[in-house]
Amino acid sequence: MARMTPEEAQPSVRIVEVGPRDGLQNEAGRVPTADKADLVRTLIASGLQEIELSSFVSPRWIPQLGDAAELLDMLAGDMPAEITFSALVPNMQGMERLLEANEKAMRAVGRRAIDKVCLFTAASETFSKKNTNATIDETLVRFEPVASVTREHGLSLRGYISCAFACPFEGAIATDAVVRVAERLANELKIDELSIADTIGRATPEAVQERIGALGSITGATINLHLHDTFGRAADCVRAGLRAGVRSFDGAIGGLGGCPYASTPGKRAPGNIATATLVQTVEDEGFSTGVDHAKLGAARQLADDLVARARSGAPG
Ligand code: MG
User: Fold this and answer.
1) How far is the CA of 195 from the centre of ligand 1 (A)?
2) 55: CA distance to ligand 1 center in Å?
């Protein structure tokens, strides 16, 4: 029998880098597209398995991500097949832009740009209305054609549930509300993956255990945890997630973005768990991630520099 390396002997956990989308979306300043492409290349080099690159939302809503197609153009040829690249799609117009970008990349370099389509709904009715101008039900109806086109094109599908623990407007969110939305995403949209998002960092280890336990009966979808470190509890929640059987977690390089709902003019509240913190927590619990810490450190340095430059040029 071949000798196993220590990494092969350990169970592995997937680290999904969401900084280029979720991080930059919540930065006031605009990072130039060429700099975003450089950041993504350093993230690719650091051994991450999956990277959420951007959003095909209307540039009127989120100008920071209005360059999704240009970013993919710049990255064409630099996207290894073994890494999964994903992007958010809010509606059919966004899906059409994504398909165009994929066709263009296929013609240019023989590889599609985006492998996974991410849809966004919420467990809180108020958040859904304020964030997407639609009820939860309306978002699910809007996603039906997006989901079927995703499947026709052989792409995989992630469904995010925002406010899966608490909502900035409604407060605590019941587990039942999360389960109801999760069941509809699984049964009606046939998602491959469910991402449980703690939008404002209110999750506790106990709540993570409870949510994951309740969602365990939803078959067919991989469960991912998208944790925020607003109150410094994200690492504890990662450990609770691992104990509950979760093997996929989102992080943002350098904790990019912050939390717009918890920040004040004088102080930026932490947002997504920093990828380095996530990787260290997961590895300390005995799992491998495949991430090269030094290269991730270089990506973090670049992210810090880009955001500092964008902030200094940003109004306010
Ligand atoms: Mg987030």
Assistant:
1) 11
2) 13
Give residue 304's domain range.
11-309
6 within a domain of the structure (yes/no) = no
Number of domains in the chain: 1
Tell me, in angstroms, the distance from the centre of ligand 1 to residue 6's CA: 32
Tens-digit pLDDT profile for residues 250-272: 999 999 887 777 777 777 778 89
Residue 1 belongs to a domain? no
- Do 135 and 126 touch, CB atoms closer than 8 A? no
Q: CATH number for the domain including 105?
A: 3.20.20.70
The 10s digit of each residue's pLDDT in 94-118 is: 999 999 999 999 999 999 999 999 9
Instruction: For residue 283, tell me if it sits in a domain.
Output: yes
Band the pLDDT of 1: cuts 50, 70, 90. Answer: very low
118 catalytic per annotation: no
Alpha-helix residue ranges (DSSP H) falling in the chain: 6-9, 24-25, 33-45, 68-75, 92-109, 125-132, 136-152, 175-187, 205-215, 234-243, 275-284, 293-313
- Can you say whether residue 12 is alpha, beta or left, with left for phi > 0 and alpha for psi between -120 and 50 degrees? beta
- What distance in angstroms lies between residue 215's CA and the mean position of ligand 1's atoms? 20
Whether residue 148 lies inside any domain: the answer is yes
What pLDDT band is residue 316 in, cutting at 50, 70 and 90?
very low
Tokens 């999750």, residue? 203
Q: Whole-model pTM?
A: 0.94
